[in-house]
Every structure is written in C-alpha cells, then in structure tokens.
Amino acid sequence: MTASLPFASVAELVDERLYVTQPHLPPLNEFLPYLEEIWSSKVLTNGGPFHQQLEKALCDYLGVKYLSLFANGTLALVTALQAHRITGEVITTPYSFVATAHSLLWNGIKPVFVDIDPKTLNLDPKRIEEAITPQTTAIMPVHCYGHPCDVEAIQKIADNYNLKVIYDAAHAFGVQTAAGSVLQHGDLSVLSFHATKVFNTFEGGAIVCPDAKTKQRIDHLKNFGFVDEVTVVAPGINGKMSEVNAAFGLLQLQYIDGALAARKRIDAIYRDMLDGVPGIRCVEDAGETAANFSYFPILVDSAFPLTRDELYQKFRDHEIMVRRYFYPLISDFPMYRGLPSAHRGNLPVASQASSSVLCLPIYPGLSDANIGRIVDIIKGC
Ligand SMILES: *Cc1c(COP(=O)(O)O)cnc(C)c1O
User: Which residues are responsible for catalysis (predicted)?
Assistant: First the structure.
C-alpha cells in the first residue's frame, strides 16, 4: 500500500505534465489492416506500394508536382545538397534546428550564417548579398515556424549570382501563399515528418522536386546510387522510407485537416488571451494564406516582469515543458562557433530572438483548460 503511493503520485504528475507538442496518432485499430497487407505481401521497403501511394497522396495534398520520400528530414537535406552537387560555401540561417547546418557539414560545405528579419525571424534577404563570395554556390533558408521566407527576394538574389536555393521546409507542411504551396519555391524543398512535426510518420521526410528528372536522380541517391541491379551512378546513401512508415503516413493524411483546424483554434485562443500583455509579443504570420500553426512562439522583452529564462523556469516548476526554439543559435554550437560568420556581432537580430523566444504548447489534443493554465502563468507574473 505505502509502496504504491509514490507510483500513484508520479503517474498523476506525469498526467499533468504538458509538453510543447504531442504527436498525433490515429486510432490503432485503423492501422492494423495496413500491417496485415504488409505481412501478406512481404514488401517491407524499397519503394513498395505504400511508398508509391504516399508519394502520390502527398503531391495531391500539398499541391506539388514531384516528391521523394525519405527515412527522415536530415537525410533528405543531405541528399538535396548532393542532388545539385552543392560545394564551397552556403548561406544559411543560425536561427533553426541544428540539422539545417549539419547537412552542410555532412557535405563538406562551409556554412555562412546571415542574420534574420526581426518580424518573420527568417533569413533576411537584405543581408544575403554582403555574405556572397566567389565560393558561394547556394542559399539554404528555413521557413521558420512554417512562416514563409521572402521567397521572391531570395530568388532574385539567387538568379543574379547564379546560386541554387534549397529550402529547409521542415516546418512548412501544408503552408500556402497566394501563389500556391510554399514548397514550390527554390530548386528543392525538404520536409520532415518527425514525430514532433505537424504531419508525422514516426520518422520521415521528403524532398519536393520540380521535375521528374530531378526526382529520379534523388531516388537514385537515396538508394545507394543504384539505377538497376548492376549500375551504380553515385555514392548514394540509404535514405529510403519503409513501408510501415509510408502506410502510417497514408492513414495520418486522413486526419491532417482536422489536426490543422484544431491547431488553428488554439492559435487563435492564445492570440486573443495574450493580446495586450505587456512584454509579450506573439510572432505574426508572414503572408501565408494557409498556415499550419506548427509552433506558438512568443517573444519576452524587458517590459515583462520576468526574464525569458525565469519565465521558462516558472513554466517548468508548473510541469509545463515549454521550449526555447531556437536557443542556442546554431552558430553558437562548438562545431560552428569558430566560423567568422558565427560571430555574435554579425547576428544581432538572431541573438536577440534566441534570448527572448519561448514556444508554448500547441497540438490538437491540448484542452482549453490547459491553455488557460498556460496563459494564467504568464498573466500571473
Ligand atoms: C525537424 C527539423 C529537421 C530535421 O528533420 P528530421 O526528420 O528530424 O531529421 C531539419 N530542420 C528543421 C528546421 C527541423 O525542424
């Protein structure tokens, strides 16, 4: 009896604990028929039927022409750079998940960090040109929090200097602007279907390609470079998505509209409740006509009674696991901080955002009572 007490209280505590996200999972019984099909066909991977169906279904859903599925977003980023034979220096943002820059190092490319726009927190096009050198071959921007980059300004610079543009679109599933899917811009866009993302296949990712020829090259690169049984055309990697993940993605896709609608509702409640709170700024949309509400970042400034880190700690004390996306900046990690472009003086806006941002929980199952709990902590400071 006494021995079970601590367990009971731990369970209660864990129940009460809120995370910044919670993966969407469809009813388990709906997944079983997919597994039965895999068991009977014995096709587990290598571009099987579920893989083909998911590629087609995602093209239709996202409004893009071609897409190649991957085991995860990071392998897709590494392969996207390979597909265009990117070398030398690539201009990128320090305000992102570390995989953005890691994909450059995996290709022996030198990242060149450029500061971000204070409103959108995306790569600032006005700062790109001064960072271009004779070694620059590409730009790798990120649609941070799913808010579109200034794709036109970036493309203009790329055209002027003959650079490729590879978007890290890991946050941008389903995001549309007046021109259609945000994933159509640049030379390639890379998605992540990691468990923490808006659309998840447990682990997964994809490269959105503009034409069949590029897709074919990418399909070779993700399968060791094999073209047929005896022909290998490149030192490709194993980046293939399995049939289990692809089947799961097909089922998830049936629920995505409901999940996005639930996120939209939570986003609106937060904005309404936090409106006018001194020292708290909610990051605005960046002109998307369809947003995905993948994150709910707030910026805590000096008008707020607590520092960002004090507020972060206060949330933790209440078992609310808010996250500081993106702190530290990528440019502050040991493998990057020696680069000239990693210098804090070069990145004042990113440094400021990184030290003031806090991402609040947002996911379809977040209850109104818990949203109230979260807002009360901020308002009670
Ligand atoms: C999640 C994420 C990645 C990596 O994707 P994985 O599927 O986890 O490998 C890359 N870039 C950004 C911006 C991300 O948020």
Answer: 197 (proton acceptor)
